[in-house]
Amino acid sequence: MQRVITLLEIITVVLFTVQSAAAQTNKQLAQTILHDKKLDTVLAKAKEVLSKGFNAGDGYPQVWIRDFNTFIETSCEVYSLDSIRKNLLTFLYLQQPNGEIVDGYVLKGHVTWGDPNMYYSSIDTTHVGFKNTVETDQETSLIQAIGKYISITKDTSILYEKIGGKTALERLGLSIEFLLKNRYSNKYNLLTGATTQDWGDVQIEGGAVVDIDSLTHWSVDVYDNAMLIIALNNMIRFAKKEGDKQQWTALKERTATNARKYLWDASKHKFIPHLYVDGSPFPKSFDENKIYFHGGTAVAIEAGLLSKKEIAEVNADMLKNVKLSGAPSIGLTLYPPYPENIYPGSHSNKEYNYQNGGDWSWFGGRMIQQLVTNGYVQEAYDEVQPIIDRVLKNERFYEWYDRDGKPRGSDNFKGSAGVLAKAIVMLRDWAKEHQ
Known about the structure:
Layout: H1 7-34, H2 37-50, E1 63-64, H3 65-78, H4 81-93, E2 104-107, E3 127-130, H5 138-153, E4 162-163, E5 166-167, H6 168-182, E6 184-185, E7 190-191, E8 193-194, E9 218-220, H7 222-238, H8 242-263, E10 264-265, E11 270-271, E12 275-276, E13 292-293, H9 294-302, H10 308-325, E14 334-335, H11 361-373, H12 377-394, E15 400-401, E16 407-408, H13 414-434
Antiparallel strand pairs: 1-2, 2-3, 4-5, 6-7, 8-9, 9-12, 10-11, 13-14, 15-16
């Protein structure tokens, strides 16, 4: 008598067939990645650039924490770990009495610009600090950078280095307290900052440009709050006391909940650009929510704010925006750009210029990283190609590119080199597991 095949057996065979096909596809992709010599070349170039120190790029002699945070992992492979440790701690030596962390620093006597708002410290009398106060990511960038340093080196002693009578870990806690006291909306329970283009450091209204002033419109955006969530993940990991762990966990959960509640537009599967604390700088006729912030969205994915389905949707949206704009790569800052005359005081108000629709590998590379992390490896490999190709063509890691693919800004921009190096390593690690 012929045996009847059960529904369960049919389902099992189908699933096995699908899994086998997926495994074969993964194996083919893994082999493609492992044999891509272009990735080898760009990774080697990135390591060469990052072996030369910590300044942001050839056009920036200063050490900036928001940049350092994005290339520290590769720096740990190619540079003195003792020097990296000292550079991280220098930011805490220059910490202000209110807990504020500077953007960056230089040796005294090496200041090459006229800034009356320099930062000094009685603990470190050899360096001078500076800060673009329109931003709210310096404190969180330092916490993240120290977290990456510890993950690579296992040197937890850095957290207990005594600086002015306080441990480094205590000082990191003070830096978060600074944000909660000075850059926080109690109405929304989210961080605030000046109104900038996505993750940028140029305020919309012009005025003091990189510094808050009487023209500043305070707002909430996803980038600053995603950076806080990532930093809090580190603080939870650093904490030895259960009370500290609970404090940071509660703040993280509250921030994530409110970021979704107030900033995520589910109908358009995108984050709104800004939530204004006390009035918008734009005319009522302007619909700012038509603008899609790419960089802040990539960091939001890293912070765990989006589901896997939502990640696929926003990646598709970004690719559509790249095509519509004519931009070279997924590094497109935002789309559509802010209209040129919507805020005539800003120096970067031209469409597709600088942070207003320029193409930045510094953030495009972060999107590639998150695609790999979340299992979209084919997409990551495809989308990194234009970024890789332009590095090879120009033989530099430029700061940004215009719509025609022309390199702009600082060359050998270490932030770009760092995020691409990490993206390549992530692709290679995945490929080695699936070959």
